[in-house]
Amino acid sequence: MSYPADRIIQINARIRAAGLSNANFASAYLFVTETPLPVGFAVDTARTYFDLADIGTDFGASSETYKAAERWLGGIPRINEITLWAVNPTDATITDTLNKARNINWWYWSFFTEDVLSTPADVLLIAQWCESNGSMFVNNQTGTSATAIRNQNTTDDIASQLTTLGIRHAFTPVHATDAYAGNALVKYFAKVNYSADKSTITGEFKKSPGVAAENLTSSQITAMESDTKKAVFYTVVDLQGSNDNGRWLNTFTHSTFGEYIDDVVNLDAFINFLTVALYNALANQTTKLAQTPVGQAVLIGTARNVCEQFVRNNYLGPRNYIDPDDAVEKFTAGYEILTVPEDILDLSDSDRDARKSAPIRIRIFRAGAIHQAIVDIDVF
Q1: How far apart are alpha carbons 291 and 344 in whole angstroms?
Q2: Taking a C-beta distance cutoff of 8 angstroms, is the pair 162, 169 a contact?
Q3: C-alpha pair distances (Å), 130 with each of 246, 294, 349
Q4: For the chain, which ranges sit under pLDDT 70?
Q5: CA 336, CA 168: separation in Å to the nearest integer?
Q6: Where would you tag: which of 162, 183, 344, 376 has the fewest CB atoms within 10 A of its CB?
Q7: Are 97 and 72 in contact (CB under 8 A)?
Q8: Cβ neighbours for 237, distance < 8 A, ≥ 6 positions apart
Q9: Please, where are the H alpha helices in the chain?
């Protein structure tokens, strides 16, 4: 027998683990209250559909479930799937249902049928749950509720209540006759690929084929655009006899910070991407990440890569700003990482014993979106 070479050259293979993956910000749950349920679809379970026709077969084309899903799966842009959750009618407030579903799976967009959305107490509970659990609630309102929201003198409508609470993860699309119009708007957000260049969007001015554009009065528009209601609407835009038949406008959430839908969705995505990247940088080391400037530099570099990615996709962008640390006006490309690798040398003994890194301070600057153009004309 020959002499084994591996007794001389001893190689230990270290396989890098896959780690975490980024969240799917196109994932959507529609909570179904209709009965009877299709055969084999039990309460407190989920079923994923890839085709609207299959939902029609199971629930019927005239069902509220079908109508709600139609605005998501049908039309442009094309969305590939939706998950239905069969609500247990014995659940006590709606949050019991949401918690059961979240214990099984994570999703981002939360849809409900008209019977739930017409109950203000349920809407408030859903909005609070979504705010606490990082899910975006599409609070479609129609009929008498839409009338109340569009009344400047009404202050207790559901849009006003959500604005009073300052809920960031809820917005209220209002349509007089279409109970699920807002589901068509959020498809644009679900199609964003955060890894692609110039991919982030604004909800403003988007078109939703299949949704009837409304002719609104000045009073109705004023009510919905007010700081107390912040309602989203799909309308005809006209200028001296020329009509643009259908644009989404006033695409705010009910955030106390005055955020548009894209502000909230993009920040959620940024935080998710940053969390995943930093976790993988820590967890996928084949030996360890040393508590040294070199180890700290790995984390800083990881954070910088995520920030650069979100500059490329147009969530972050350049501006001049006043630095709050020294009151000096400075230029930024879209983010500033204030931590340096050597900061880890000054860790306290307790933080070092707890095996922490030095805190990574990051400032991010949103690129935003232009929704209005202002022109000053000097005539001579």
Answers
A1: 7
A2: no
A3: 29, 39, 39
A4: 1, 5-11, 13-15
A5: 25
A6: 376
A7: no
A8: 243, 244, 247, 249
A9: 52-59, 64-73, 95-104, 114-117, 120-133, 143-149, 158-165, 181-185, 187-190, 218-225, 261-283, 293-312, 349-353
pLDDT tens per residue, range 87-120 = 999 998 799 999 999 999 999 999 999 999 999 9
List the beta bridge partners of residue 28. Answer: 109
List C-alpha distances in Å: 201 to 79, 185, 332, 365: 16, 12, 21, 16
Beta carbons within 10 angstroms of residue 241's beta carbon: 5
Tell me how far apart the 2 most distant CA atoms of the chain are, in Å. 102
CA distance 376 to 380: 13
Residues 6+ apart with CB under 8 A from 104: 46
Phi, psi of 324 (to 5 degrees): -70, -15
- Name every residue whose Cβ is closer than 8 Å to that of residue 361 and which is 6 or more positions away in sequence: 337, 338, 339
Of the CA atoms within 13 Å of residue 218, those in its CB half-sphere come to 0
Q: How far from each other are the two terminal CA atoms of the chain, in whole angstroms?
A: 102
Phi, then psi, of 319 in degrees rounded to 5: -170, 165
- The DSSP bridge partners found for residue 366 are 316
Closest CA to 203 of 216, 187, 219, 214: 187
273-299 b/e (C-beta count within 10 Å ≥ 16 → b): bbebbbebbbeeeeeebebebebbebb
Sequential DSSP letters for 351-371 = HHHTTPPPP--EEE-B-----
Contact 113, 31 (CB under 8 A): yes
| Pairing assessment for the beta strands 170-174 and 136-138 based on DSSP bridges | parallel
Q: What's the confidence (pLDDT) of residue 10?
A: 63
Residue 171: beta bridge partners?
Answer: 138
